[in-house]
Design a protein that fits this description.
- This protein has helices at residues 31-40, 55-58, 61-68, 147-158, 173-183, 188-202, 212-218, 227-234, 243-256, and strands at 2-8, 12-19, 22-26, 44-49, 72-75, 84-87, 92-95, 98-104, 113-117, 127-131, 134-135, 138-139, 165-168, 210-211.
- It is of the alpha/beta class.
- The protein has a six-stranded mixed β-sheet. The chain has a six-stranded mixed β-sheet with strand order 7-8-9-10-13-14. A two-stranded antiparallel sheet has the order 11-12.
- Helix 4 packs across helix 9.
- The protein is globular and about 55 Å long.
- It starts with a strand and ends with a helix.
- It binds zinc ion and fe (iii) ion.
- The site of fe (iii) ion has 6 residues, from helix 2.
Length: 258
């Protein structure tokens, strides 16, 4: 299978997963971007996966369904217009002959889901479509969920195999990494990853997919219990409280960070 990031809007990626001439798309915010890629690569659209209800993830859904007549899957607990088969934690969806597991990952939105494909028999690494929950070096804003929910969602994703490819929905990496460096100035893996990502962006390449192994080393939102992160948090707050409260302080710091 082939994983292709289609840039859309300012900084979104619509993910195409292809096998021979068959394709699925994840979070098609813009139907035109998807249709152009399908005709350029001579692909047939077989399914649409949706992670959450925001328009930059769903805007192309109705048009694509109408044109291609393919099934679409999305979260059980979100209001999304279209013919969706609704999925929640523990359910599975089979597309392109591969079965994805569905996780509930509330936090960015209340009903946000993620799609996980374990390693395939063909030897391909696991693959995660996580929408706006986990970004490289960061995480989604808490629009509908609580810090405790987002922390639990990220904890769940952090237990996936290190080799898991993380297909995030936005190219926010470099700005996330500037914040990560402020949080963990002595993290050498982070420093090396910043240089790696700067080189990719200078060459006009996406920094994504990332991997769970990399994110566990460099992403402060997966590292909020590390002593290095706790020390930095204590320089901005007199006390941290429990894990969810420390995570909330980290998220609020990022919101203010320029
Ligand atoms: Zn969103
Ligand atoms: Fe988004």
């Amino acid at each position: 299978m082939n994983l292709i990031a289609l840039p859309a809007f300012e900084d979104n990626y619509l993910w195409l997963l292809t096998h021979q001439q068959r394709a699925i798309v994840v979070d098609p915010g813009d139907a035109t971007v998807v249709n152009q890629a399908l005709s350029r690569l001579n692909l047939r659209l077989e399914a649409i996966l949706i992670t959450h209800h925001h328009p930059d993830h769903t805007g192309g859904l109705m048009a694509l369904q109408k044109q291609h007549g393919c099934p679409a899957y999305g979260p059980q607990r979100e209001a999304i217009e279209g013919q969706l088969r609704r999925l929640e934690q523990g359910e599975e969806v089979t597309v392109l002959g591969h079965t994805f597991e569905v996780f509930d990952v509330p936090g960015h939105t209340a009903g946000h889901i993620a799609y996980f494909l374990p390693a395939t028999t063909a030897g391909e690494s696991p693959l995660l479509f996580c929408g706006d929950t986990l970004f490289s070096g960061g995480c989604g804003r808490l629009f509908e969920g609580t810090a405790a929910q987002m922390l639990a969602s990220l904890d769940k994703l952090a237990t996936l195999p290190d080799a898991t490819r993380v297909a995030c929905a936005h190219e926010y990496t470099l700005s996330n990494l500037r914040f990560a460096k402020a949080v963990e100035p002595d993290n050498l893996a982070l420093q090396r990853y910043i240089e790696h990502c700067q080189a990719l962006r200078s060459a006009g390449q996406p920094t994504l997919p990332s991997t769970i192994g990399v994110e566990r080393q460099i992403n402060p939102f997966l590292r909020s219990r590390e002593s290095s992160v706790r020390r930095s948090l204590l320089s901005i707050a007199p006390s941290l409280g429990d894990d969810a409260n420390a995570f909330a302080l980290l998220r609020e710091w990022k919101n203010r960070f320029k």
